Amino acid sequence: MLGIEEAMHCPKCGLFVEEHRRSKTDAGSQTILGADDPGDLTLKPHCEILEMDAHINHMDAVIHQLRRQRATASLRRNAYTLIACLPVEIISDIFLFAFAASCPIEQPQDTPLATTLPLVLGRVCSHWRRIAWGLSELWSTFHCRISRKRSSALAALLKEWLARSGERLLTVRISMDDEDSWRDAVSPTEIIDALILHCHRWLHISLTIPESWYDRLAHVDGKVENLETLAIRPPGFIFVLKTVVAFFNAPLLQGISASHYYLHDLQFPWNQLQQVVLETASADEVLELMRRCPDLNSCRFEDLNDSEGTFLVDIVIHSKMQFLDVSFDPLSVGLPETHSSPLSSIEALIERSQCPLKTVQIKGPSLDEQDIINFLTHNDSINDVRNK
Questions:
Q1: Considering the domain boundaries, does residue 186 fall inside one?
Q2: Are residues 324 and 248 in the same domain?
Q3: pTM: predicted TM-score of the whole model, two decimal places
Q4: What is the model's pLDDT at position 232?
Q5: Which residue range forms the structural domain that includes residue 355?
């Protein structure tokens, strides 16, 4: 115990016993300063400070040693707790259940919460850290919320995170804390560069794409053979004139979500798409998209605007549509008195296409209750109509 028995101190004066003994031994050879001697004013405080520093240093050493002994004793004690006796396989399953309950991809798109559970588990103890670090499932699905000021540090963390995911297919969402700062043409690209290295493992991807990332994304063309769903939008919800061609050769792509892009700038394998979400689109873009996607069974149009005359406005036939969700622009949530109910257009689509449409949601204009009843009466396939 660092020689405690050799350095005991007096409980009354606080001096070490050995120092007190030495002071007595040397007393005869010391020159006693008088009260009027100015040297006494500097020598005495200096000696006291040295004694206190030595005392403090000794206590620090003792405390450090006691902490080490306590840690060792706690480690031996904790080895007998029930959780420590569980097999690694059971703990791994517990981790995976906890992760599934907090799955970042199940959260709403506007949530600010990034994925931290694997890191939290790793901070509990070295045993849990070894298990968590070795579970590639914990690292293959995540929401990375980035900041421009910390983009370099986050890119380094992202590389390490992706390495721990092994060769598993990736479900990734990239969002931003400070979207307005990413709208210029010289935004950092370290994040997307790190992610592109693993594009062959992309399964479900959701990206907020700054202007400087489009050239980088062009490198994934023909390399996203596992991609099934994709969601893209520019930062700040501001329309951009950027052509998106990187995902045209995605053989398994079935669902897309695009916001604040013009349809003529989007190039996807339209013929194979089954689910589409299009935000801030014009009416003629919606009709053109439905014509391009004959296999659509679910589509949602958010903030639908008037026709801009870019594409032909004509009737559409769809035989596989099951879910249709239309939200009108909030600036024009009411329909003119001379305008027919949207339900009549949907009913005409059903009659033309003989599609098994089951669910209809219309947001914005208020629908007459009797119109809804008549619509349900005349269309047996419909089992759910919602008007918000």
A1: yes
A2: no
A3: 0.73
A4: 96
A5: 274-388
